[in-house]
Amino acid sequence: MKFHTEYLSFHTNKRREYLNITPRIEEIVRTSGIKEGLCLVNAMHITASVYINDDEAGLIQDFDEFLEKQAPYDAAKYRHHRTGEDNGDAHIKRQLFGREVVVAVTGGKLDFGPWEQIFYGEFDGRRRKRVLVKIIGE
Length: 138
Fold this sequence. Notes:
Blueprint: E1 2-11, E2 17-20, H1 22-32, E3 36-43, E4 48-53, H2 57-70, H3 88-97, E5 100-106, E6 109-110, E7 117-122, E8 128-137
Antiparallel strand pairs: 1-8, 2-7, 3-5, 3-8, 4-7, 5-6
């Protein structure tokens, strides 16, 4: 069994952004030399998400509007803000979109279904964040 670990860093310019990180993950899989196994991609911050979906601009905008309706940014709304923070909405958005994804590695490549891509969702940006990529297999 082989293991390969890398970290990606992000510093977004906006509070909320959705970045297609698939090409970077594919390169890490190639670099790992692992042909059969699993690839874990994990947002290491509680106000960011990693998820799989289609890379279509209208859909991404729909996601953003949905999340903003479910957990609007409103500094007066969240009890979490009593601690001096202003990102209560970002914590809830992360819970809705999830922390991580696991993708099978088959023949040295990510084994996706049609249109699937890996995204990093940032809900409290404008500062440095990390994503863990861990590949396990043979």
